[in-house]
Design a protein that fits this description.
This is Methyltransferase type 11 domain-containing protein. GO terms for molecular function: S-adenosylmethionine-dependent methyltransferase activity. It holds the Pfam family Methyltransf_11. The chain has 284 residues and is an alpha/beta fold. The chain has one domain: Rossmann fold (3-Layer(aba) Sandwich). It is globular and about 55 Å long. Helix 3 links the parallel strand 1 and strand 2.
Length: 284
């Protein structure tokens, strides 16, 4: 079982950044909104919660960043980060930031590239932290949790989301399921589902030092409308693309047709393609 290094993660998300933005970002945005509102940083909560500084880790193409900027008060500092420079650039484009500019001064906003497991900030630098669909991907989730704890001040709140339970996530299981039906083995790296156990992830957060950890599940439907569209999205993953390069063309054609037909059958029954997210809200 291969676990990607930070360097490999940076390369992977650089390759996949535009496809992720085009096809997957819309499904992650509702969970980003859930995390942001769980922090109590929105304008509606200003009378009872005076957040001074927020750190976003793994901003991706910027859906969560834009939501946070829209909902926080302007005096609250927001720093958004990602391990991939390509993702940083997509976020900047989304926010209308040009050239070498990495700040929106009037919004008290800054963006920079960094590794979630080795943050370049001093202890207690922030009172809020959120990371959408990253914790299950990093080399060491335990290290990422400890870093989140370290950069938060006492009483600070952090929110994370990861892939949920596979039985409730057909969006992320169809490709593998159809491969297994024709005896293709895709198990080359650690499963992104490895943190969906609520007891396990809660204990990991407590072990990192957090005093209060709430855990739950939520479901997000995908806008996928047909099997061809699904195959275009989920066969573009860098790991899958590497596998396809060494695959017999007839075998690939059979695999793809099974994926397309399976998705079309689900949609024809009036069911959505979608995925479950597991999320945690932690207090230091």
């Amino acid at each position: 079982m291969k676990i990607l290094t930070p360097e490999e993660l940076e390369q992977r998300w650089g390759i996949f950044s535009k496809n992720f933005q085009r096809y997957n970002e819309c499904a992650t945005a509702p969970v980003a909104f859930l995390l942001i509102t769980s922090l109590g940083i929105t304008k509606q909560f200003d009378s009872c919660c005076k957040s001074k500084s927020i750190l976003e880790v793994a901003c991706g193409p910027g859906a969560g960043t834009k939501l946070c900027l829209d909902y926080k008060i302007d005096s609250t500092k927001l720093i958004s980060t990602d391990i991939s420079n390509e993702m940083i650039q997509l976020t900047k484009e989304k926010l209308g930031m040009s050239g070498e500019t990495n700040e929106i001064i009037e919004k008290n906003f800054k963006i920079q590239q960094c590794n979630a497991e080795q943050l370049p900030y001093e202890d207690g630098s922030f009172d809020r932290y959120f990371s959408n669909f990253c914790l299950h991907l990093v080399t060491s989730p335990e290290k990422m949790l400890r870093e989140a704890y370290r950069v938060l001040e006492s009483g600070g709140i952090a929110a994370f989301s990861v892939w949920g339970r596979p039985e409730n996530s057909n969006q992320f299981t169809i490709v593998k399921k159809m491969a297994e039906e024709i005896s293709l083995n895709l198990a080359h790296s650690r499963s992104p589902f490895h943190l969906n156990d609520t007891n396990k992830i809660r204990q990991m957060a407590l072990d990192a030092g957090f005093s209060r950890v709430l855990v739950g599940h939520t479901f997000v439907n995908s806008p996928i409308q047909n099997g061809e569209e699904f195959s275009e999205v989920f066969l573009s993953n860098p790991d899958i693309q590497s596998f396809i390069k060494i695959l017999d063309k007839e075998k690939f054609s059979l695999w793809k047709s099974k994926i397309v037909n399976h998705v079309d059958q689900i949609l024809s029954r009036g069911e959505f393609i979608g995925s479950e997210a597991t999320y945690i809200v932690c207090t230091k």
